[in-house]
């Protein structure tokens, strides 16, 4: 199944939500699964972005829906990238 990297930055509203309810992150993971994707790994990051998530989804349309649904809430700004496993990439280059 295709892999996607989702890099996100909390808005002021998002920071308030996470501060008041840190378990909200787990709830969002369940919502993502209901939309047809799966969270494989998540990291809190320092710097320009707050979180990096590795997701699996059946297609671009599914991950676009996830990204749009989450971003529309106004609590997070998201950049989503398609990821190709490096050995698959090298194989296709040969």
How would you characterize this protein structure?
This protein is of the alpha+beta class. The chain has a single domain, classed as Alpha-Beta Plaits. Helices cover 43% and strands 31% of the residues. It contains four helices and four strands, in the order E-H-H-E-E-H-E-H. It has helices at residues 12-20, 24-34, 60-71, 86-93, and strands at residues 3-10, 38-44, 51-56, 76-83. Strands 2-3-1-4 form a four-stranded antiparallel β-sheet. A hairpin with a 6-residue loop joins strand 2 (38-44) and strand 3. It is globular. The model has no long low-confidence stretch (mean pLDDT 96).
Overall structural class, as computed from helix and strand content, comes to alpha+beta
| Low-confidence runs of at least 5 consecutive residues | none
* Helix-strand sequence: EHHEEHEH
Residue share in helices?
Answer: 40-55%
Please give the order of strands in the largest beta sheet: 2-3-1-4
Summarize the structure.
This protein has 94 residues and is α+β, with helices and mostly antiparallel strands. 43% of the residues lie in helices and 31% in strands.
């Amino acid at each position: 199944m295709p892999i996607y990297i989702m890099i996100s930055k909390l808005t002021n509203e998002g920071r308030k939500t996470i501060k008041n309810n840190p378990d909200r992150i787990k709830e969002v993971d369940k919502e993502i699964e209901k939309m047809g994707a799966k969270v494989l790994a998540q990291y809190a990051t320092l710097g320009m972005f707050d979180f990096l998530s590795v997701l699996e989804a059946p297609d671009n349309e599914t991950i676009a829906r996830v990204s749009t649904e989450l971003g529309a809430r106004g609590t997070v700004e998201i950049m989503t990238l398609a990821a190709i496993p490096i050995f698959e990439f090298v194989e296709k280059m040969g």
